[in-house]
Every structure is written in C-alpha cells, then in structure tokens.
C-alpha cells in the first residue's frame, strides 16, 4: 500500500529543493517503479494507459497529422501540424521520419490520414485518432495528461507525474492515480512492487517508502 505521509514528505522535499536551485526551466517530476517476483520472459507483459487528473508536462510537444479541417484548427490553437502532402514526402526518407519521431512526444491524426501512416513513425509513436466531432484542444490536453505503463524486458519503468510548478496536492493526486493504476495491472498487485521512487529530472532522488 502507498504510504501517504511518506509520499507527501517526498513531494515537499523535491519541491523545496527545486526552489532553492531555481533553474531556468520547469523541472519534471518522474515516478520510477521497480518490480519484483516478475519474469518478463514467462509472465504476461502488460501495457496500459491512464489519464491523470492534472497535466504533468504542459510543454509536451504534440504534432497534428491532419486533413485540411484539422490543419486549420491546429493553426488556430498554435499546435504544430503536418498535412498529407508533407507526410508523403516523409514516406521515402527514413532519416526525416526518425527526426520527426524524435522531435515530438506524441502525435494526433485525422481519420483519413491515420490509414495512410500505419507504420510510418515506428513503435510507441503511433498517432491517436481525432475525429471532427471532438474538440482538438481537448484532445491535446487529454494526450498531455496520459501516462503509459508498459512492461518490456526490464523490471523498472518510469513515467512523468508532475512538475515543480504544480501544487503539492496535485502532484500527490497524480502519483496516487499512477501507482494504483499500475498495481491493478500486476498479477499479484502490491506483492509485485519492489520500490517506488520520485525524482526530478536533473535533480535529487527521493524515495518514499511503500
């Protein structure tokens, strides 16, 4: 079970230490989870995403791969975009595709466009579908609030759960939801959790006990 007091203390320490250093950018707070009694070779590998109550990385880079209507909407809200013609040029150039995939954390795509780019951007960067019935801005915010847990070959995984400019209560709620969601994916729930630690990118490491 997650020890709430230890977690609150860890968050307070991270935020306080960040204020002392005062960097020129807003540091991201990451949650690192180490699993135990789990064999990635034999046990079923899991994958799941959860929407956090508060956006951990407001400056997360997202690109819209859109039809004419979505390109127009993206322009209005200041979202980076590429139209079908620009995407066609990429298809023949692996270097450009790699560069594009590295530049953005996530991609959104119109229905008519998504069918044309099944494997273009490589693993982990497959675009999220956006229909014309939903608000593009809402979809962007929803994407920024999502975190994904995926078991690969190693028993350690990390996700962004906040940033030092957020209220401590918001960071706490994000961590709580992330941990509870991950635990629900594990075959023996909390018995498979070895350790949890919170740390600031380029900062100190603070470990709340569990």
TrEMBL record:
<comment type="similarity">
    <text>Belongs to the universal ribosomal protein uL1 family.</text>
</comment>
<dbReference type="GO" id="GO:0015934">
    <property type="term" value="C:large ribosomal subunit"/>
</dbReference>
<dbReference type="InterPro" id="IPR023674">
    <property type="entry name" value="Ribosomal_uL1-like"/>
</dbReference>
<dbReference type="InterPro" id="IPR050257">
    <property type="entry name" value="eL8/uL1-like"/>
</dbReference>
<keyword id="KW-0689">Ribosomal protein</keyword>
<dbReference type="GO" id="GO:0003723">
    <property type="term" value="F:RNA binding"/>
</dbReference>
<dbReference type="InterPro" id="IPR028364">
    <property type="entry name" value="Ribosomal_uL1/biogenesis"/>
</dbReference>
<dbReference type="Pfam" id="PF00687">
    <property type="entry name" value="Ribosomal_L1"/>
</dbReference>
<dbReference type="InterPro" id="IPR002143">
    <property type="entry name" value="Ribosomal_uL1"/>
</dbReference>
<comment type="subunit">
    <text>Interacts with the GTPase NUG2.</text>
</comment>
<keyword id="KW-0687">Ribonucleoprotein</keyword>
<dbReference type="GO" id="GO:0006412">
    <property type="term" value="P:translation"/>
</dbReference>
<dbReference type="GO" id="GO:0003735">
    <property type="term" value="F:structural constituent of ribosome"/>
</dbReference>
<protein>
    <recommendedName>
        <fullName>Ribosomal protein</fullName>
    </recommendedName>
</protein>
